[in-house]
Write a structure and sequence with these properties.
Length: about 120
């Protein structure tokens, strides 16, 4: 579809495309075709941190979808906001790796919560 000119923007998801390398590879191919990339990102804080980091490296980057007050656990799971947002721009987390670290105490407090199986 991109080669046929059917898309102006694509929304690959870090979890399903195969990780950081595949996101970068796909974005490079899109950029060569004049197609922008806006990562699909309705995920938890670890995937969000990965999406932030890779988005900062993309030449064809349009914008990053993000959660906004959807879950009170989102920032608590990593002990702080994943990224400070100001004027529509996010500052990358500065810690090692993806820039965030899971808070083990928060994970333990919520480990016994039942999960739901989602089906389409």
């Amino acid at each position: 579809f991109c080669e046929a000119g059917a898309y102006d923007v694509v929304m690959p998801d870090m979890k399903y495309i195969g990780g950081i390398h595949e996101m970068q590879r796909t974005a490079a191919e899109c950029e060569a075709l004049g197609v922008q990339v806006s990562p699909h990102n309705p995920s938890g804080p670890i995937c969000h941190a990965a999406s932030l980091q890779v988005s900062a490296s993309l030449g064809a980057f349009e914008m990053l979808e993000l959660q906004f007050d959807e879950s009170p656990l989102f920032d608590k799971l990593v002990g702080a906001p994943c990224a400070e947002i100001s004027d529509g721009k996010a500052e990358l987390p500065g810690g090692p790796g993806l820039g965030v670290q899971l808070d083990d105490a928060v994970l333990r407090r919520h480990a016994d919560r039942p999960s739901r199986e989602w089906r389409c």
